[in-house]
Amino acid sequence: xxxxxxxxxxxxxxxxxxxxxxxxxxxxxxxxxxxxxxxxxxxxxxxxxxxxxxxxxxxxxxxxxxxxxxxxxxxxxxxxxxxxxxxxxxxxxxxxxxxxxxxxxx
Length: 106
Known about the structure:
- The chain is α+β, with helices and mostly antiparallel strands.
- It has helices at residues 49-53, 57-67, 80-94, 97-101; strands at 11-15, 20-22, 25-28, 33-37, 68-69.
- It has a 3-stranded antiparallel sheet. Strands 2-3 form a two-stranded antiparallel sheet.
- Helix 2 (57-67) packs across helix 3.
- The N and C termini lie far apart (44 Å).
C-alpha cells in the first residue's frame, strides 16, 4: 500500500555536510540531498512543538525518520551542522504564516 500525502505538503531540501552514520557504519553519504517534509500532526506524537522549535537534539532525531527522504534512521549520528540544517527546516515548517511575516528579511 502506498502512502498518499496531502496535495499541500510542503517540502524543503538541504545537502549533508557530513555522512550520517549508524553503529559506526555510513548509511547516507556526505553531499546527499535530504528532502524534509512538513510534519503532520500524527508525526508529532510523543514530541512537543516547543522542543522542536528549540531544536532539541532528541526531538529532532525522533522526528527525522518520520519526515526525511532518504530516511535518517533512529539512532543515527549526524554532523552538528546537518542537525542544525534539519532543525531550521523543521522550525520553518512549524512557524505560523503570521509569525513569518513579521520576521526581518535579509
